[in-house]
Model the fold of this input.
Amino acid sequence: MKNVALYNLGCKVNSCETEGMRQLLQEKGYRIVPFDEAADIYIVNTCTVTNIADRKSRQMLHRAKQRNPEAVVVAAGCYVQTGRGRIEEDDCIDLAVGNNRKKDIAEILEEYLQNRQETGKGDKTLGGTTVLDMSRPCGYEELQLKQTVEHTRAYIKIQDGCNQFCSYCAIPYARGRVRSRSEEAVVREVRGLAESGYREIVLTGIHLSSYGAELAGQQGPGTGLIALLEKVHEIPGLRRIRLGSLEPRFVTEEAAGRLAALPKLCPHFHLSLQSGCDATLKRMNRRYTTGEYYESVERLRERFGRPAITTDVIVGFPGETEEEFEATRAFLEKVGFYEMHIFKYSRRAGTAADRMPGQVPDRIKTRRSGELFELERRQSAEFRRHYIGREAEVLLEERQEIAGGSFWVGHTADYVKVAVPAEPAAAHGENEMVRVPVSRFLTDEILI
Done:
């Protein structure tokens, strides 16, 4: 029996795939151990969304080889897909697996280990690394989950790939074109997880709004995803459905109305923005204006009352002037988000933005991102403060010691973190839905 350690980097889609590989290996008899322990095989599911992600991927691969120089170190995923030259030259990597082969991880390892035992090297050896087929994925790779690391909330991948080709993004080159999982497979997986006791599921994908776009019979933006949601909504035992990142154009009048008719759908919407300046959005090849984005937010607020709206913002995109940055900040103030994920622009080789003039110095990016972090903290506190003096329904997830006390910590439907006193000990438990009064901030992030 071989010991295998897995490490995940990047998005929730990667997390789903890592969990899928973990389960496949367990079913084949491998023993799963923590990544910081000695193992016979280390698998790093890599990310390439930024230069930092690339560097972190390399660091974890090298750390694995340092931990056990005799171990088989496997690089999988997006960094592998876009950085073949670097992968082939890296002596710490024994085996590279692209995004189209993760479902075959058990068979790949079995063949590699057999070849190495017989010949001292694997098939298609280039330098010291065995590199498998790295062609861009063209079909949906099925990795069905029976359980997840979390015991209350399950992330389910339903879509892969992206057709948008935003000027800053390397993901279409790493993930390929849009591919959607069948409705039948998604419903079957959700039903199984619900029967296993999961109360909440999160549907996720690389470009979730495109779900179903390539399937026969789907017409119009978002229709495939909404039709799937309506089917998932009927599954017994499921209490909450949460969505991953959406494009602003997804939220039409029809879409907002159909979403609002689903009581299990969480009023928590991540609408990707990237910039609050129309000129910057155009250079980014984002296919909407700030006016259209604001209309989408208003549609959700009209239907859901006070939904949690979250977003991503990139600062320091090539050509971003002080005036453009101020336009972004003013727009963020106008919208009023629950949470914002702020990123400094990272150059990605092979993208259109990498060749653009007007690259912004890092010191300016740092200052601008710092200003937006302050705005994000203020807006998030304002949103959460609304709960004080009201009752909240919380899905309890884990027990924690906070500020000298024992609490059950969980989230509301709009993803606000709430702590519930754990004494008496038998009062509550993991995976329980409770209604509690909220009276104050326990920490900067947690209400009680």
In short: The CA atoms of residues 401 and 407 lie 6 Å apart. The radius of gyration is 23 Å.
